[in-house]
């Protein structure tokens, strides 16, 4: 009954198809045909098909938004407080530029280039009760890092035509530009204890002993926007940010030894921040050529 399987591969495929058409009970033929079709499409061809479909889906609504934003933010770290510790949240301005692409009426994707400053101060009172070798005096330490922050975001809008609410979300990467550590923790006497020396300041070199240069995290925000004129949008947004990485760099060996015998916690934390900003975006509609327009242009050239 299946003697044709001994023939050449090309004839075998043809016979399988013919056998299936005459014998509907045999279900193996479609599986063989589909598997051959799938294997014949390479990954490169699949990528080209995906890009083509994506281009078709967004070609009907091509708009780019470019604008500026500026505001004020508050920041602190994830350091856990214990008895005798107090935290002073840092407050600094933030500003940047925005570029986004409207995928449709209610969804856009884009990125920002923001200058952001994160800062925190930790105060230690006598109630903190460090070990005797750390002395029992009050002390504080304060650090700040300035970043070029690049959020890559998605934005969903909903509401009326001129006034809309929106939700912003996505990851960000921060690149450290500069930083400062006031009352830097030193380890005198060959690493016997930790001392926050007053009136000392260390500029960040983003090397061992201070901060990591790269910070990665996520953003979540929301706000309201108002259309101004034909192509302008004014918006107000509140946003929170959570860092995923430790922004402190590795400590020196003397510092590690001193922290091991001290009640002061070894620096290790990620950033937490919130900001509110106001901004303006201008919408640019990308030129599109429809099929009929292209035909008319060709006719004129003739």
Number of strands: 11
User: Strand sequence of the main sheet, in spatial order?
Assistant: 1-2-3-4-5-9-10-11
The fraction of residues assigned to DSSP E strands is over 45%
Structural class: alpha+beta
Give your account of this protein's structure.
It is a single chain. With 302 residues, the protein is of the alpha+beta class. It is 22% helix and 47% strand. The strands form two sheets. The protein has an eight-stranded antiparallel barrel. A two-stranded antiparallel sheet has the order 6-7. It has helices at 9-22, 28-39, 43-58, 188-191, 253-260, 291-301; strands at residues 63-77, 85-102, 107-124, 139-159, 163-182, 185-186, 195-196, 201-203, 214-228, 232-243, 271-285. It contains six helices and eleven strands. Residues 1-14, 16-29 and 291-302 have low confidence and may be disordered. A hairpin with a 3-residue loop joins strand 4 and strand 5 (163-182). The chain has one domain (63-285): Porin (Beta Barrel), CATH 2.40.160.20.
């Amino acid at each position: 009954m299946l003697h044709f399987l001994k023939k050449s591969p090309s004839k075998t495929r043809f016979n399988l198809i013919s056998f299936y058409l005459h014998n509907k009970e045999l279900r193996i033929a479609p599986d063989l045909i589909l598997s051959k079709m799938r294997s014949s499409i390479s990954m490169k061809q699949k990528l080209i098909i995906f890009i083509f479909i994506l281009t078709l889906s967004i070609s009907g609504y091509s708009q780019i938004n470019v604008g500026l934003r500026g505001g004020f933010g508050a920041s602190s770290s994830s350091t856990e407080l214990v008895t005798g510790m107090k935290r002073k949240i840092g407050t600094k301005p933030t500003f940047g530029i925005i570029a986004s692409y409207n995928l449709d009426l209610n969804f856009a994707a884009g990125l920002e280039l923001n200058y952001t400053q994160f800062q925190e101060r930790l105060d230690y009172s006598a109630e903190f009760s460090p070990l005797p070798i750390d002395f029992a005096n009050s002390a504080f330490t304060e650090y700040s890092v300035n970043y070029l922050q690049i959020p890559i975001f998605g934005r969903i809008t909903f509401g009326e035509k001129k006034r809309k609410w929106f939700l912003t979300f996505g990851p960000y990467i921060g690149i450290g530009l500069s930083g400062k550590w006031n009352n830097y923790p030193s380890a005198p006497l060959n690493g016997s204890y930790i001392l926050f020396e007053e009136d000392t300041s260390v500029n960040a070199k983003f090397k061992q002993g201070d901060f990591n240069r790269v910070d990665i995290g996520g953003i979540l925000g929301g706000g309201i926007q108002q259309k101004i004129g034909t192509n302008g949008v004014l918006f107000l947004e509140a946003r929170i940010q959570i860092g995923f990485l430790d922004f402190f760099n590795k400590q020196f060996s003397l510092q590690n030894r001193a922290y091991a015998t001290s009640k002061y916690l070894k620096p290790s934390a990620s950033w937490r921040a919130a900001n509110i900003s106001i901004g303006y975006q201008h919408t640019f509609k990308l030129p599109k050529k429809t099929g009929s327009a292209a035909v008319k242009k060709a006719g004129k050239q003739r």
